[in-house]
Each structure stands twice: as structure tokens, then as C-alpha cells.
Amino acid sequence: MEQPVSEPLSGENGRPLAEVQRQVSDQLDRELRQDKINEHDQSLYRQQTVSLSISPNYVKQWDTTAAFRELYQNWKDAILERFQVERRDFQPCYENKRDCISIIVPDASGPHGRGQALGFIKYEKKAERVILANSCASLRPDDLQFRQTSKEGSHYLAGCRGEGLKLAAMVMSRNGYKVHIAAGGCDWSFRAPGPSRSQFSCVIRPSRNATSSLHTDPTSDIAQLRSHIERDVTITIGPERNRKRDKISLELFKKWLGATLDIRGFSYPSHIIETKAGDIILDASFHGKVFYKGMLLSGPVSETESFRLGYNFLAGTVNRDRQRLVDKQEEANIVRRI
After folding, report:
1. Domain that holds residue 315
2. Domain count across the chain
3. Three-state DSSP class for residue 119
């Protein structure tokens, strides 16, 4: 059940978030117009193939839940960073509709937090596919390179290695799902190695759906589960054409959502104590589970015994496989501070 937001979200320097959103949208429009005249960025307007040096067996233990966790993490971080949303104000709301499941991050600076949104996740029941959309976002070919990230030094964001999107696309492809991105007026399609391709790659081509002008309100469009290829970044996960039996079932989608802690009306605990050092989760179903900035760590919590309660860590260094904190002493210190 959707929970009302009691206080309006504020952006940098206490400005209403709606004002921040308008300024961000205007800035992105200027950047896109400038891109068209910059010779350096002309590659965005012609087809190109970016080879990704990833072995199909890399992160072999990852399943589709781990891959979705990476996509969700990027989706969340983009909203936090782009609109200066505080951690506790990030409150995506789950709603089961007739034809879809929607998870919307409301722009609570609007009337009662309704009718305006910053991002959405949508599960289409008939097509059995998943869509993640970020409002007023951008993506460039350089972002597909390993270690290429804008999150370096942003301690409040969960990602930092610059590899989550690429690994998620590769793991999804390995399991029979296709990842497609619409961004910057282009269609981005990931392709697994095959008879004619030796490497995992991404083909970027100008989209036929792109238009020369856009005058709609981004917060209203996102609230209505609409995104635009010129202004937003939209990721679609669906079955490969030759593996239609591997559609994304509702049960699998809900399993994916279980890797997150944020979603009101679905995964957010009913009994949680928030502190500056992290959160204590009292719900019995969360006992022994550890989250890192809202994302479930999949490995065993401790080499000796499990925690009696659940925890959400806001600091620390996780291993590359997102299983646990690297330093057990650091883990103990975080729990003590909480």
C-alpha cells in the first residue's frame, strides 16, 4: 500500500525539487543541442558497435537476481545524484495494476506527491518484460567502458566500479534475456558472442522514434509510466526472440525486487530503526540479512554465526561479487556504531 510522504522533498540549498527538476531538464536540453554541433559527439548520431571485453563466464555465480540488482542500483543512484534526493526521501511505491506492476519514485514537492515522478520501474504482465526509466538522464558510449563511472567519491551512492550495467547485460544475456536501452536519441542493443561475433558487444544506432523537439513535463510523463528517448534513459529486459519460453514471470520479477530494501508496499520493512550509521531491521523475515545502501548482500553474513537482526549498512567496502563486506573488523565496527 502506498505510503503518503509527510514532507516535501527539497533539492540543493533547500530549493523545491520541482525547481531542481526543471533546471535539470533545461540543462539536459542544452547539452543535447550542444552535442549535435560538437564533432567529438557525432558518433552518437551514426551506428557504431562497442566491443566489451567480458568473458561469458565472468561472475559465473551471478544469476538474474544479481543482474537486476545492478540495474536497480544504477537506476536508484541516478535519481539520488541527478535530483539531490536524500536517502530517506527516496521512497519508491509499489502498485499492482490490472495490466502491470508499477514502482514509481514520487516527486513529493508536487501536490500530495501525486502526478509527478522522478523514475519508474514497470512490469508488463502480458508481455512479461521489465522496464526501468530514469528521468532527465544521459548515457554515452564511453559509459560502456570498464571503470568508467561518474560515482567516484560519491559516498552516498552504492555503485562505484563502473561495471554494473555491462555485467548485468551480460548475465541477463547468458540467461536468455535481452537488454535494450533507449537513450540520447539512440537504440542500444547488447549482443552475446556467437558464430559471427567473438565478443560481447553493444550496437548503438539512431532511433526512428526520436523527435527533434520535446515540450512535455518530464515529471508528469514519468508518473504516467512514459519515457522519451531524447531526454530519459530507459532499459527494457525481455526474452530473446528464439527463447520465448524464458519470459519473465511475475514470480521471478518479485524475486528480483527482493534484492532491494526501498520499495514501499513491497520490500520496505514494517519495523526499522534508522540511524546515521545505518539501519536496524526488526522484522523477523529480515533476521540475519545484511543490506548495503539498500541492496541485499548475497553472501553469508559471518564466518562464525549470523546476526540476530537485519542490518542496512551505509558505509564499508563490499567485494566485487557484492556478497559481503571485505573487512570483517570494519563490519563489526559498523554494527557497533549502529
Report:
1. 269-337
2. 2
3. strand
Other C-beta atoms lying within 10 Å of the C-beta of residue 9: 24
Rounded Cα gap, residues 80 and 157, in angstroms: 8
Nearest to 128 by CA among 74, 72, 178, 93: 178
Is the alpha carbon torsion for 59, 63, 64, 69 positive or negative?
Answer: negative
Checking if the pLDDT of 265 tops 90, the result is yes
Say if residues 236 and 130 touch (Cβ distance below 8 Å): yes
Cell reading at 236: 527494457
Q: pLDDT band at residue 157, thresholds of 50, 70 and 90?
A: low
Q: Indicate the residue type of 262.
A: D
What average pLDDT score do residues 105-129 get? 84
Residue that the C-alpha cell 566485487 belongs to: 320
- Residue 74 covered by a domain: yes
Instruction: Report d(CA 108, CA 79) in Å as an integer.
Output: 14
Question: Do 247 and 321 belong to one domain?
Answer: no
Q: Specify if 136 maps to a domain.
A: yes
Residue 262 lies in a domain: no
> What are the grid coordinates assigned to 12, written together?
540543493
Q: Return the number of other C-beta atoms located less than 10 Å from residue 91's C-beta.
A: 20
Which residues, 6 or more positions from 332, have their beta carbon under 8 angstroms from its beta carbon?
none
| Entry field: residues in the chain | 338
Q: How confident is the model at residue 232 (pLDDT cuts 50, 70, 90)?
A: very high
pLDDT tens per residue, range 7-29: 445 554 556 666 666 676 666 66
Write down which residue in 229, 256, 283 finishes a domain.
256
Phi, psi for residue 206 in degrees, rounded to 5: -55, 140
Q: What is the spatial distance between Cα 74 and Cα 235, in angstroms, rounded to a whole number?
A: 11
Domain-embedded: residue 261? no
